[in-house]
Write a structure and sequence with these properties.
This protein has helices at 17-20, 30-37, 45-48, 63-78, 111-116, 127-140, 155-165, 190-201, 212-228, 268-275, 325-335, 358-366, 381-390; strands at 4-5, 10-11, 83-84, 90-97, 100-110, 119-120, 142-143, 147-151, 171-174, 181-187, 206-210, 240-247, 253-254, 256-260, 279-285, 296-301, 304-310, 349-353, 372-375, 400-401, 412-413. It is α+β, with helices and mostly antiparallel strands. The strands form five sheets. Strands 1, 4, 5, 6, 8, 9, 10, 11 and 12 form a nine-stranded mixed sheet that branches. Strands 15-17-16-19-14-18 form a six-stranded antiparallel sheet, with helices on both faces. The chain is globular, with a radius of gyration of 23 Å.
């Protein structure tokens, strides 16, 4: 069962939400955050990217930067830019991208569920990134930004959400950077709160879609606080962390594509010939060509687009990892032909999220920065859930979720 609870969210007043809200900390660098914040002292970047309050070049990992985050968090509350709700609520957060809306329930999930594997992950985490987020949670004593979960489709919850969606939202704005619509409702009715809690209790698992490091950090900080409390019972606020949970079928996963700097000493003709061992290769011309189905890839090389269809026998339909296009391309193209063994550390490869389109792949190759580009068909949410259920880990750089959650709509305090 999935243990969740409502919480007393810390939120901006309605008239200030567009001043406070921001992109998540990990989708932009320090200078981008500095530029976006500009002279807006209410921007959440002063809490989640507080290095912008120091001279250019100050490390985001400097101890004084973490201290500044806590100082600014207190300042935001003192000035009334962030105000804590008097009662515990669940919240609904809706995002609309390209005419499609997905509705998430903002809840507090239990750290024990993460530790026990009831909250399932599909990516490896890095200790340095975990430690960074742990420091941020510790010093603020809060989850400033939510993690992004998926849950199996549920008709009871869907009906409840749609009932609220028909009413006027607390927040409703178009974000300046992504151009997507963001809406937010407060669930204060106790019967609805109980219904949500009960429906989640029936779910065997929740799935991390995005935010593996934030989830790990929250669980580790919760474990630290458990050890520090001789009267620990398990229902203290530090046992919970904030998540936005979406029905799996609503989520949009975009392609996550590759651009490669060289052909491992081969000519273009030799490279194309090497591909024919495991792929049916078909030249498509100079117009951008997008993969249309699973196990089809598109390659851009020397101003031409190619379709690559993996041959039967090159993948295993019974293996949740082996059937993935990201695994096929990594094994049979990047490793076997181009000798790129480690996608996390190689400086010969870079990755482009699907929101930027295949035109970005073409641009980077045409500019001479990259030699070739490879576009993949998107992973499905069902594939992610199958892998998480099997206890396996996806290959790196496999998923790109859009739209990203905006930060600053609600915050969870650990006490």
């Amino acid at each position: 069962m999935a243990i969740i609870k409502p919480f007393k969210g810390i939120r901006p007043p309605k008239e200030l939400v567009e001043k406070v809200e921001s992109r998540p900390y990990d989708v932009l660098d320090s200078e981008e955050a500095r530029a976006e914040a500009g002279d807006n002292e209410m921007s959440l970047y002063h809490i989640i990217k507080p290095e912008i309050d120091f001279p250019v070049g100050t490390s985001e990992y400097d101890p004084k930067v973490y201290e500044k985050a806590a100082e600014n968090f207190k300042k935001f509350q003192d000035k009334g830019w962030l105000v804590q709700d008097e009662c515990e609520h669940y919240y609904i957060y809706a995002q609309t991208m390209n005419g499609k809306t997905q509705y998430g329930l903002v809840v507090c999930a239990h750290t024990d569920d993460y530790q026990k594997g009831n909250i399932k992950k599909h990516e490896l985490t890095r200790r340095d990134k975990e430690e960074d987020r742990m420091k941020h949670v510790r010093i603020n004593n809060a989850n400033i930004e939510p993690v992004f979960f998926a849950y199996p489709d549920n008709s009871v919850l869907n009906s409840l959400i749609m009932r609220y969606a028909a009413t006027e939202p607390e927040y409703d704005f178009i974000a300046p950077v992504d151009g997507f619509r963001h809406q937010f409702w407060v669930i204060s009715d106790q019967q609805d709160i109980d219904t949500i809690t009960d429906e989640f209790a029936k779910m065997p698992s929740l799935y991390i879609a995005d935010g593996h490091h934030r989830s790990a950090a929250a669980a580790l900080v919760g474990a630290e606080k458990q050890k520090q409390n001789p009267n620990h019972k398990g229902d203290e606020e530090y046992n919970f962390f904030m998540a936005v949970c979406f029905q799996a079928s609503q989520l949009t996963i975009l392609d996550y594509n590759r651009v490669i700097k060289d052909l491992n000493g081969m000519s273009s003709a030799e490279f194309i010939e090497a591909l024919k061992k495991n792929f049916i290769v078909e030249k498509k011309g100079s117009e951008i060509y997008k993969p249309a189905k699973l196990h089809e890839f598109s390659l851009y090389l020397d101003g031409e687009w190619y379709s690559l269809v993996a041959k039967e026998g090159t993948y295993n339909n019974d293996d949740p990892i082996g059937v993935l296009d990201v695994d096929i391309s990594s094994r049979l193209i990047l490793d076997e032909i181009l000798d790129i063994k480690d996608l996390r550390s190689s400086n010969r490869i870079d990755f482009v999220g699907g929101l930027r389109g295949l035109g970005e792949l073409k641009r980077r190759v045409d500019s001479g920065e990259m030699r070739t580009a490879l576009a993949l068909y998107p992973v499905s949410m069902q594939q992610i859930m199958d892998i998480a259920d099997s206890g396996k880990i996806m290959p790196p750089k496999a998923t790109w979720f859009e739209p990203k959650l905006r930060s600053g709509l609600v915050i969870h305090k650990l006490s």
